[in-house]
Amino acid sequence: MSVFPATAAAKAAGRSRTSASGTRPGSRNQRSAYWFIAPLGLGFAVFYFWPLLQTLYFSFTEFGAFGGHTFIGTDNYLRVVKDVTVWQALGNTLIYCVIGLMALPIAIVVASLLNRRGLRGVSVYRALYFIPFVTLPVAVGLVWNWLYNGDFGLVNEILSWFGVDRHYWVSDPSTAVYAIGTVMVWSTTGYYLVIFMAGVKGIPQDYYEAAELDGAGPLRRFFTITLPLLSPTIFFASVICMINSLQTFDLIYIMMAEKNPAIGDTQSVVGLFYKWAFVENAQGAAAALAFLLMLVIAALTYLQFRIQKRWVHYA
Amino acid sequence: MRRRTLLGGAVAAPLLAACSGGGGGTDSGGRTTLSYGMWDPAQVPGMERIIAAFEKRNPEISVRIQLTPWASYWTTLKTSMRGGTAPDVFWMNAVNFQLYAANGVLEPLSGHIKADATPVDRHPKALVKLYSYRGTQYGLPKDFDTIGLWYNKQLFDKAGITYPDASWTWDDVRDAAAELTDPHRRVHGFAAEMDRQIKIYPAICGADGYVLENGRSGFGDERSIEGMRFLTDMVDRGWSPPQSAMVESVGRVRYWSEKVAMNYDLSAMAGQMYAVPALKDHGGIAVLPQGKRRATIIHGLANVVSAKSDKKAAAWKFVHFMAGREAAEIQAKAGATISSYEGTQDAWIKSMPEFDLKHFIEMQEYAVPYPSSKNTAVWENLQYPLLGAAFSGKGGIESAARTLGEQMDRALKEERDS
Description:
Low-confidence stretches of chain A: 1-22
Structural class of chain B: alpha/beta
Radius of gyration of chain B: 24 Å
Strand content of chain A: under 5%
Shape of chain A: globular
Helix content of chain B: 40-55%
CATH superfamily of chain A: MetI-like
Radius of gyration of chain A: 25 Å
Structural class of chain A: mainly alpha
Mean pLDDT of chain B: 89
Order of helices and strands of chain A: HHEEHHHHHHHHHHHHH
Low-confidence stretches of chain B: 1-28
Strand content of chain B: 15-25%
Helix content of chain A: over 70%
Number of domains of chain A: 1
Largest sheet of chain B: 5 strands, mixed
Strand order of the largest sheet of chain A: 1-2
Number of helices of chain A: 15
CATH architecture of chain A: Orthogonal Bundle
Oligomer: heterodimer
């Protein structure tokens, strides 16, 4: 009796193989595939590719305050390269990127802890970790600003139990960038947790059982089974995470008041872009800045794809 | 065929009704609806009363307030200007005026003013001039603001110090600040906040310095630096919270919660101060103490008409009404701000009898107009990032101010060249 389902499965597999071989290049099937991806392609062309070309064009022009523009060549790029605040913003953005990546190890550890067999209430934990991610960054920023408040914030209150002096976390240039980075990590960990939980679930339980029989402890199992088999997921998550943290803006915009003395030390490239484009009427230079940021992101992503060959194992 | 005529009739009916209702640029209801852009929620009740009076006289026009928070007002306005959805009439300030006028997005009002004999000369001359560009008037003032010294009488009584008056100099402020500061109760004598309009500019002018004169920055000037040092020195000595603290709870809030004994603040804040029971009871007002000379900063808002509006005739009627005595009196009674129409300020002073609001009017004599150029926002945006450290008790106001002066001069040069 037990043989019957197996043969049925084999038959089904055989059938699917024959139908798959029917998809030859240039066949009707393939043409219809293009129709299926057309809506996405159209959206991409209208909302990404066309604005990209426009940005590139505008980066060589100077804008009037209320419309109209003149071509000025590479002046905007010269301004961007010569401006010290650009380099400072780029440095800050790279710090955000490094801090932002901290969400990954936290998410991996929590995901593998939640993967324990027989653990109850996994979905509750998953929801709890995910809630910050679906909360509006504006709300997150406001609430954390209250928590960080130097005069009556909860963070100082708790730290004072351990004898730490009160501190103005988001307005002291030496701590502000880390204070914001912490909130970034806090609010994105849940997203990566969900990705990693799916990845961890995909690792066959047999490996763990075999390793356990061979006497491998939980740490050993984590480093020799979970991490290598999770590496494709980690790679995907790190690319996404890096791009997101390089484009960070909203949280900083909310958490940093205009008169904050730490503003120069926390401003991201996109924050500077906003200031130029929408406050100072320098849309052309802002376009150049945006284009350079795109190049930086492209370069770093390319680098990640090059390095992945050394550490990502596709099982 | 029949269907078409039916449809045609349906479309024509409201159009006809609109035509009989009154004048061009009307909406389907037969009334012209103007949108009125403003940012201060505290002034909404007063503005609503003015609008009600205006609508009573002009039943064919209705005005709808479009409130945008200060933080995003100018960004939103500029974007909506480009997109063609800007309000018909909106608030303008000195910082942005020249940029808007120079780019032709404001409706010139000189012709209308002449035709309708708008009482422009009843408003402060300096303020009217602030809203003319190359000889053409683009805006009519609605109110004005000066900076005064707000103090907490109870904290003064506790420290046994006499209240500030017109004879006070910066030395008196320093002495009082030292006495009033109580680290144990986390009370500071003064709030030397990094704020251009209410702290930095008045201090610079009080030290006989200047912010902008003949297209040159005054930040590098020794007198200006001395003015700013008056503020940063308070921070260094611990008589004022550092800027890093005041960015998390601003000076005004600290004054409200009685954690700061003396604060420079706008006359427009009177209504909000009045709403705090403790301050209504023992909040005091004095003219700004004298540095090298007497000075305060005067600034006022104006109503302007968008050049892209398709209801300009109605918009002008509204702006004309707002510049008249009746509107000014309503505004003054509402108490949110000093109306700029001559002789109507008494209503404002009487609206809060517990406060000595007359000092704000007195200061007009030596008030310095708010400095501005075409791209004011560009050089003003240089200030806070460069001065932040000095206002946080890290010192170095001299070199920070000089750097700011150089960078501002560069921005002003770019402005001239463009």
